[in-house]
Amino acid sequence: MAKPKLSTVFLGGCFGCHMSLLDIDERIIELVDIVEIYKSPLVDRKVFEERSDIGLIEGGCVTEENVEVLLALRDHCDFLISVGECAIMGDIPSLRNTIPLRECIEEAYLNTVSTWNPTHNIPNDPELPLLLNRVHPCHDIVKIDAAIPGCPPRSDALWEALQALLHNKPVQLPYEILKYD
Amino acid sequence: MKEISFIIDGQKVRAQEGQTVLNAADDAGIFIPRLCNHPDLEPFGACRMCTVLINGKPQTACTHPASDGLEIQNDTPQLFNIRKSILDMLFIEGNHYCMFCEKSGFCELQALAYRFGITRPKFPYQYPRRTMDATHPDIFIDHDRCILCARCVRASRDVDHKHVFGFVGRGTAKKLAVSSAKGARDTNVSPDDKALSVCPVGTLMRKHVGYSVPIGKRLFDLMPIGSDIEEHVGKQGKE
Ligand code: SF4
Q: Is B172 in CB contact (< 8 Å) with chain A?
């Protein structure tokens, strides 16, 4: 029987959740024995050709591109998990949600004391993903089936959740590893 | 003092006349979740976390006097869900960034959410625009985290006898205020005030300290909130 497929994406986050996944240490060998890491920043596949059983999302929706990636993941995964506080609540990127976008950009590119920007231009290359007006948690955009909180989640929490799912059990994190920080 | 007895979740609890249902339950080793209540302050009944069914009617356990023969339900799926929803609402109404909050691991709001197994709130985040008062040299007030429990208001008024804190505004605009428009710096609040030590979340914080206890050793890292009450075989006891 083919191994279940696991895909992961990295949206508006700091890569800490993926680092936490790597932090399961030698259990990663056990993991790749039982799942195929299908599409992920940890492997090199560019597009989905087949469905995945489980999708893990790190990061919230900060740019238009994040939304596209999230929609594609939803389309290609049976069970989608928001991993970490950025995916769940927007976390640090969402600190800008109470400030108008233009004000944020002007502060970053024009106004801070440490800014050196002789052209006084705000970067607008078409290559740059367009920033959304505000940061959205992933469940604002697509249906999310479970969440693993933490910033980043404990690697044991990720391990427990994956183990539960791969054995067809509900994701229930023990008290010691269900943490928001 | 006269001894009375009543029933919580089918269990007979002995208590003293004059106790509230919440205090009597605490003494009997039964945890009723609460947020605005604090053992050193007058009950307030604001957060509704401690709502129980008393003879079939929803009542706040922190304000309801214990009396003979009451039939109380505390641990039911329906009350669990109502309390969970209250927690969910508190999380989405403020900006609760646990990951950089110095109170994390000691925060009662967070600890209750852990106890209730909340992985994400079921309501959309509001991201209200709230401010920070860092004017005082030794104290900061992070309004993002305030849950309007009024513990500081009661402590400052009744214990510190200073009346530093109060509420202004209504509905979603309601917020904590201090007794000077210029901010905390212009009040007689002190870092040793009871008001600061009773805040259940990270709103009223002392400067110059922070993250002093390592992760894993903080108050609620391993033991859920309320487990001290449940483990303590009270002087009244249950039968
Ligand atoms: S500052 Fe703290 S104690 Fe005061 S009302 Fe807000 S949450 Fe309660």
A: no
